[in-house]
Amino acid sequence: MATRMLRRGLPRVPGGEPWPPAGAAPDGGGDVMEDAGAAATAAPIVGVDAGSGSATGSGAVAEAPASSEAADAGAPSVPADSTIPAVTTPVATTATTAASAPAVARVRRGLPRVPGGEPWPPADLVPAGAPAPVSTGAPAPVSTGAPASLSAATPAAASAAPIPESIAPAATEPAESPTGTAAAPVGGGMRRGLPRVAGGEPWPPAGIVPVVAEEHIVDAVPAGQPTSAPAAAIADQADQAQHGEVVRVADVSAPLPWTRTVWDGRAPRRIAAAPASDRRRPTWPQAIAALFAAAGLGVLAAAAVAFVRTLLSLPFMQDFLAAFPGEYAPAIHVEPGFAPWIGWQHFFNMFLMVLIIRSGLTIRGEKRPTAFWTPKNNPKGKVSLTIWFHQALDILWLVNGVIFVVLLFATGHWARIVPTSWEVFPNALSAALQYVSFDWPHENGWNNYNSLQQLAYFTTVFLAAPLAAVTGFRMSGLWPKKAERLSKAYPIEWARAVHFPVMLYFVLFIVAHVALVFLTGMLANLNHMFASSAAVTWTGFWVFVLAVAAIAAGWAAARPLVIAPIAKLFGTVSGR
Hints:
Blueprint: E1 47-48, E2 55-56, H1 66-72, E3 88-89, H2 95-99, E4 142-143, H3 148-153, E5 175-176, E6 182-183, E7 209-210, H4 214-219, H5 230-241, E8 249-250, H6 284-312, H7 315-323, H8 340-365, E9 372-375, E10 383-384, H9 385-411, H10 424-436, H11 451-475, H12 484-489, H13 492-519, H14 522-530, H15 539-557, H16 560-567, E11 571-574
Parallel strand pairs: 7-8
Antiparallel strand pairs: 1-2, 3-4, 5-6, 9-10, 9-11
């Protein structure tokens, strides 16, 4: 005799011993009887359904109709569709069945379904299609649910004991295999597992059998049938023996369908760029439409210039220009010229403003940041590296603006950009009409700005800049999260609705400002801003070129590879 030992696995409870305990023997295992004739056991019986004539208990297809065996034994023939009450038949024992009785097969038990419950499945569960335990006691009456003549005449022809309906599947009809041939279920029902939903039934449902391969169909052909047509033979026998309940047949060879609900898990830096040939290019109709739109704008601009020049040639407009030439004398005396600090403040403001606009546009189009920044004193305040860069530039820009305003009022130059008379509005209208007519208004920025310039600078410094700071602070991580009343009074949606239009205003101001600087006396204007000189030389121009080069270098360096080392000085930079 031989002894089998179970393989031990993980413990059932934390810190416990491996399961199963040491020395445990498998169910139905242990010592195997070598002598088949040592004990005489009762032969298992098979239950026959009188309504369908199919065998139950083993899940296999009957090899021959039960009525033929009954006729050979001398029992009266009973029609298959007749209804006869079930009878009780004693179990017969023979030496042949005792010698061939299989060992008891049991289901391997696993973890409990609920905390603190018993291992699953129950201890008394017998797998579908397996022989029942062999009884060595006295014969017990078994209800077969079949005619008495059939049960009494064929006790030795049965192959297995009946199995409860909750364990063994019902009789099945042949199903079509993936190759188009009939497939017969072999070995009973499928092993059932955990339910798909909480509180549901075990999966798969009871009564489902797997679709077997074609080579298994050949093995299932009864003796005496030609192997050239196994599918037809099995189909004929199934039609003769099975006319009742039809069991669903499940194909377990293919995986269940599923839908991906998350992204592919790769960072944007690893995604290959689309080939140039795949990128969408404007078609010829679109290009022609763009050319017509540009030509239309040019025509409208020319028409506006012609209309304003005609309007200003009228007598009442000539009187208006004489009364309001485009500027007025300030109420407070201001020293002419520009101090060097104004030039430096102007350069820093221009440099920071360009990078702020660039980072702001990047944030609006950034969907999956490649790097993140976390402050040292607040691990929950993680933001993307681009947002940190944008907010850092905002702080520097605000510091530069505060210094500019303080020096502006300390030196008395505030009167150059702050209106001191209501005459600023008619003079601003006069200056705007003269700009449109390309007959530039007489001005001398070294001493005084015209009224349109004054209103534009006042709006930019004292209205647009504070509005951008207030809305940006509301959307930043510096906003107090616990100030519920303040957050309710000032919703973040309002800040988002205002912040972007303010950025567009700055873009339009920069474009118009640079254009007028070059169109109304490039060398003189550049000397005023970058050389602090009233002379008309090229010094201011070359300083302006260096300033543009510095801005271009900052634009190119505004990327995570350069920003990350700087951001690490103030927090932690990570890839996720």
